[in-house]
Amino acid sequence: MNSRNNPLIIDRADLVPPGQKATAWGITLLFWGALLYLWQPLLSLIAWGLNIHLFYNHMILLGGYRTFLDLLAMYLSVIAVLGGGLILWARINQWRFRGKERRTGLDSTDMPALCSSFGLELSDIEAMRSHRSIAVTFVADDRVTLNTND
Question: Is residue 2 included in any domain, yes or no?
Answer without folding.
Answer: no
